[in-house]
TrEMBL record:
Lineage of origin: Eukaryota, Fungi, Dikarya, Ascomycota, Pezizomycotina
The organism of origin for this protein: Colletotrichum higginsianum (strain IMI 349063) (Crucifer anthracnose fungus)
Membrane topology: Multi-pass membrane protein
Pfam family, one: Sugar_tr
InterPro entries: MFS_dom, MFS_sugar_transport-like, MFS_Sugar_Transporters, MFS_trans_sf, Sugar_transporter_CS
Name of the molecule in the record: Sugar transporter
Entry keywords, A to Z: Membrane, Sugar transport, Transmembrane, Transmembrane helix, Transport
Length: 477
């Protein structure tokens, strides 16, 4: 399942790689400004169209259905892109690839979140977005290996390989069970209980964990349906708890793209050109190494979520990124004024530090946090809100970044310094700690006494702050 986010990661890195290849630039008639922005942004148009449809399918037909529906669109997009005869065909192929990634990006994290064992859920959930950098790492090294091919195949081969990681994940989809929570919601109780017993208790339907989970899930879903406050997107505005969740979903999506990462991911060659690193070999090598670096930090963060907690990682991430971007801006300004090569090269290690900060929170929590905080009936919609907020922010960035970089160069980085400061403040005041709560118990954090849940949990010995049985006030404390 983790490999599905690799399709997004591959594309997120491939544009940066293609920009460094002379044959691709020649084929696309040396795109720049608004034209370059459109080539990148059309992928996210496909995303934006696909996510609401994928959310509806996930609620109506199950979490696995969306994974299957993404494949034909991905295949169509990759074939069009690889066989592109002109720049228009290449550009519009990205629309289909973006549409496909929406199905993967919605359905896969929901399924991971809802079938994982309680003790493994946080890590498994956070590992989904690690797949982004698995795809990015593969892309970076494929582009680097193909850089010296003296034909259009130097970029057609990396584009073609885009299909491989989702195909590798296909057997996992076939073997994976349906979400037991979705099965409970449509009345398939026996099937749901059987899946819980097989995957959480070695097949023992009488295991206390299975009995407790089945009771907790059924009770929560039943109470949600009776309250009729979680039936549509409009219901996200009706209660204080849902409005809090909605604020988190929107801001997390926006800040995931307005943290400065969009410039580096999509326009790394332009940034390297601005600091004097201009050779194709140097640019593709730096891009490949950066993806390996990102992968390692993302794995480290995903495996630390229960030990360190969400708030600590969020706040540490915001601090590292803010300081790093201030340094990047200062170095870029100095290089622009002096042209000193040493100053320009000093930007490169700071870029790596910046991405370490990004990887310890935004990478693992972009899908994990929304999946945790929303109730079952709104979970797919809540994740869609996060993704669509991210897509809108990234679409604006992707279209505006090349124009701004051409017009004001390093001064554009100041915008992201302001955004990173706002991100830190938002996290501090609005993002609660969710460590130690099951999916159904998460409601007490946001809804308090109005939570649609019965508190029947036992202490979690594997968590430093265990959730205990008792009244809701004691729980929240």
């Amino acid at each position: 399942m983790v490999l599905f986010s690799s399709a997004n990661g591959y594309d997120g890195s491939i544009m940066g790689g293609l920009l460094a290849l002379p044959f691709w630039n020649q084929f696309m008639h040396h795109p720049s400004g608004a034209y370059l922005g459109w080539i990148s942004a059309i992928y996210w148009v496909g995303n934006f169209i696909g996510f609401p449809i994928a959310a509806w399918v996930a609620n109506r037909y199950g979490r696995r259905a969306g994974l299957y529906l993404g494949f034909p669109f991905l295949l169509l997009g990759v074939v069009m892109q690889t066989a592109a005869r002109n720049e228009a065909m290449f550009t519009y192929s990205r629309l289909f690839i973006g549409f496909a990634s929406a199905w993967f990006g919605n359905s896969a994290p929901l399924l991971i979140n809802e079938i994982a064992h309680p003790k493994q859920r946080s890590i498994a959930n956070a590992m989904f977005m690690v797949g982004w950098y698995f795809g990015g790492t593969l892309c970076g090294w494929v582009v680097f290996a193909c850089r010296d091919i003296a034909s259009d195949w130097c970029w057609r081969i990396p584009v073609l390989i885009q299909i491989t990681l989702p195909l590798m994940a296909l057997p996992g989809v076939i073997m994976a069970p349906e979400s037991p929570r979705w099965l409970f919601s449509v009345g398939r109780v026996e099937e749901a209980t059987e899946i819980l017993s097989i995957h959480h208790a070695g097949g023992d339907r009488n295991d206390p964990l299975v009995i407790r989970q089945a009771h907790e899930i059924q009770t929560a879903i039943s109470m949600e349906k009776e309250s009729r406050t979680n039936a549509s997107y409009a219901d996200m505005f009706k209660t204080p708890g849902n409005r809090h969740r909605l604020f988190i979903s929107v801001t997390l999506g926006v800040f995931s793209q307005w943290a400065g990462n969009g410039i580096v991911s999509y326009y790394l060659p332009l940034i390297l050109n601005s600091i004097g690193v201009t050779s194709t070999t140097s640019q593709t090598l730096i891009s490949a190494c950066l993806n390996v670096w990102n992968l390692l930090w993302a794995i480290a963060a995903a495996t630390s979520v229960d030990r360190l907690g969400r708030r600590f990682l969020f706040l540490t991430s915001a601090s590292i990124m803010l300081v790093s971007f201030i340094v990047i801006t200062g170095l870029s300004a100095t290089f622009a004024q002096t042209g000193a090569a040493a100053v320009g090269l000093a930007v490169i290690p700071v870029l790596f530090i910046f991405f370490a900060g990004y990887d310890i929170a935004i990478t693992p929590f972009l899908t994990a946090y929304p999946c945790e905080i929303w109730s079952f009936t709104q979970r797919s919609r809540g994740l869609t809100v996060t993704w669509c907020s991210s897509v809108v922010a990234l679409f604006l960035n992707t279209f505006a970044n090349p124009l701004a970089l051409e017009a004001i160069q390093w001064r554009y980085y100041i915008v992201y310094i302001v955004m990173l400061a706002l991100f830190a403040v938002t996290v501090y005041f609005a993002y609660p700690e969710t460590r130690g709560f099951s999916l159904e118990q998460m409601a007490v954090i946001f809804d308090g006494d109005d939570a649609d849940v019965i508190l029947t949990a036992e202490p979690r010995e594997d968590i430093e702050n265990p959730v205990v049985s008792g009244d809701k006030d004691t729980w929240i404390k």
